[in-house]
C-alpha cells in the first residue's frame, strides 16, 4: 500500500509539472501576438503595458479614490476627446468640454484651470485670483476675419491703463496714463505719410463728413467753429480762407520789424469798403463815424502818425478839436488884450492851437452893439482845457467881447 502511494504520488508530480510547462508556453505564445479580450479585465495591482494599447470603442475610466487617472507619459487620442461630457466626440483633433452653467464661478481650484461657460458662451481661465474670459463665441471681443471687434457696444468697453470706464460710463475706449511721464496715446505716421493721421467722422464710413481731422503734415482742420478756452499760439502764419471774425478785442502785442500791424492788401474798417486803409501809394478813405472816426489813446515811443513822410516836422502824436467860450472882459478901444477861452476840453500846454470864430465876434458898448467887432490876433494853450486868445478891439470904443470859438489842437 505504501509502495503504491509513492508511485502514484510521483505520477501526479509529473502531471503538474507538465501542466505548468504547457501553460507557460501558451501564455508566451498568446502575449507575443495580437490579443482580443471580449470581457472585463480586473487587476488588483498595476497593469503594465510595454507596447501600444489600441482602443477603438468608447472607453470609460472610473474615478479612483484619490486621482482620476495618473499618466507619466503622453496620452495620445487618435480621434476627438470629450472631457466631462457624456456626448461622444468623433471629430479628430478636437476637445469637447462639458458646459458649466452655474452662475457663480468655480471655487477651490488652482491657477491654470479653465472651463467652458455654456451660459455666457465663453472660455474662462483662473489666474490664481480671478476668472477671466480667454475665448468667446457670441459675446465679448471677437475676431471677424482680420478685424478685432466688440460683439456689442451696448455693454462692452475697453480700458487701457485702468479698469474705470470714463465719460460717465459711456466711454467705449478709455486710455489712462499710469505714470507722470506716460503718454496715453501715440499716433505714428508711416514714412512719407499721405493719408490723415486722425479722422473724426460724422457717420459710419470713411466717406462720411469729417468733423475734425489731422492731415499727414500735422495740420488741424475742423468743419465747424473752433473754440479755444485758453490762449491760441500759432508758430507760423494764421491764414483764414474765409472771413475771420473777432467778436472780442484783438490785441496786437507783438511787433514786426518796423510796424505793429502788417497788411498785404487793403484794410477795411467798419465792416464796409467805405473805410479803407491802403498801401502802395494808393489813397485811403477814412469815413466819419457817428461820434469818432479814429481814436488814439496812447502815444508811441517816437511817433503816432507821420504825415507826408517827414518824421521830423510831419509827426502828429495827438489831434483834437472842439469849441471854447470866451471870457467876457472889457477891452479899451483900439487896443489888444488877452482873454481866456474856457471849456476847451482835452487841450494841454503840449498842444499847438488854432482858433476861429463861429461867427463875427460881437461886443457891447453899454446897450449899443459894436459896429466893427473884434479881431483874433493869436492863440495858445495856457493851461489844461484853457486857450489864451489875444483880441484886438476895433469897435472904436471900450467894449466886452462875447461868443464861442472853434479850435484845433495838435501835438
What does this structure look like?
- By secondary structure, this protein is mostly beta strands.
- The radius of gyration is 55 Å and the shape is rod-shaped.
- The termini are far apart.
- It is built from two helices and 25 strands.
- Among the domains are: 67 residues, no CATH class; 37 residues, no CATH class; 92 residues.
- The longest helix has 31 residues.
Task: Using brief descriptors, characterize the structure shown.
3-stranded antiparallel sheet, 9% helix, 6-stranded antiparallel sheet, 25 strands, 2 helices, single chain, mainly beta
Say how many strands there are.
25
Q: Report strand order across the widest sheet.
A: 19-25-17-18-23-22
SS-based class: mainly beta
Instruction: State the distance separating the first and last CA atoms.
Output: 171 Å
Beta-strand portion reads 25-35%
Tell me the helix content.
under 10%
- How do the helices and strands follow one another from N- to C-terminus? HEEEEEEEEHEEEEEEEEEEEEEEEEE
Radius of gyration: 55 Å
Shape summary: rod-shaped
Tally the helices: 2
